[in-house]
Amino acid sequence: MGHPETGDAIAQLEEILEYDAIGGKRHRGLTVLAIRELVEPRKQDTESLQWALTDAINDATLMGACIYRLLKLYCREQLYYLNLIELFLQSSYQTEIGQTLDLITAPQGNVDLGRFTERRYKSIEKYKIAFYSFYLPVATVMYMVRIDYEKERANTKKIMLEMGEFFQIQDDYLDLFGDPSVTHKFGTDIQDNKFCWLVVQCLQWATPEQYEILKENSGRRRPRRWPG
């Protein structure tokens, strides 16, 4: 903090971490602790945004860099250090691929329901959510406790990716049907033209009239028209 050349930047980084890293469900970090216990027992809304877009991009880069500083600080003397570096780099890449798939499938201001296929949905959630939210924490622990057999890792990945898919489907469902006082969600996925599970299912089962209603309301923030 007191370095004469970088003190201001480090102070900004501290503010970023306190703002963005504190709060939430913390299930990714807690998963690491929970799995470690199992395999080796012990002996935001827009009004809250405070920075401009350009600042947010730089802040995200700073936070990403902190991953590797923390790994170096706590793990560099460990045999699994390089494994974790590679794991986190791969997970970051997979997440960005998923985010890119999401952005090109449901771009803002361009509603094309023909892109909303179940296959594409599963690909997006696998890369955007499941790898870093479910597989990454468990794979981290497996390296830490030296479980590095190919069969075990493959089985773990399969299970964790399926859990990630289930999590996202449930999250999409709760966005519309959950209690807002509990979920803090207000059912705007369709108005926001988000590629969600409910839209995928609607496209598979809807009547022509229901399809037109969905099309009219996708990406449009105005009163919705539902079948009588």
TrEMBL record:
Record keywords, A-Z: Magnesium, Metal-binding, Transferase
UniProt record, GO biological process: farnesyl diphosphate biosynthetic process
GO molecular function, one term: (2E,6E)-farnesyl diphosphate synthase activity
PROSITE patterns, sorted: POLYPRENYL_SYNTHASE_2
GO cellular component terms, A-Z: cytoplasm
Keyword match Transferase: yes
Reactions mediated catalytically: isopentenyl diphosphate + dimethylallyl diphosphate = (2E)-geranyl diphosphate + diphosphate; isopentenyl diphosphate + (2E)-geranyl diphosphate = (2E,6E)-farnesyl diphosphate + diphosphate
InterPro entries per UniProt: FPS1-like, Isoprenoid_synthase_dom_sf, Polyprenyl_synt, Polyprenyl_synt_CS
Cofactors, names only: Mg(2+)
Annotated metabolic or biological route of this protein: Isoprenoid biosynthesis; farnesyl diphosphate biosynthesis; farnesyl diphosphate from geranyl diphosphate and isopentenyl diphosphate: step 1/1; Isoprenoid biosynthesis; geranyl diphosphate biosynthesis; geranyl diphosphate from dimethylallyl diphosphate and isopentenyl diphosphate: step 1/1
UniProt-listed Gene3D superfamilies: Farnesyl Diphosphate Synthase
PANTHER family (UniProt xref): FARNESYL PYROPHOSPHATE SYNTHASE, FARNESYL-PYROPHOSPHATE SYNTHETASE
Record's protein name: Farnesyl pyrophosphate synthase
Source organism: Macaca fascicularis (Crab-eating macaque)
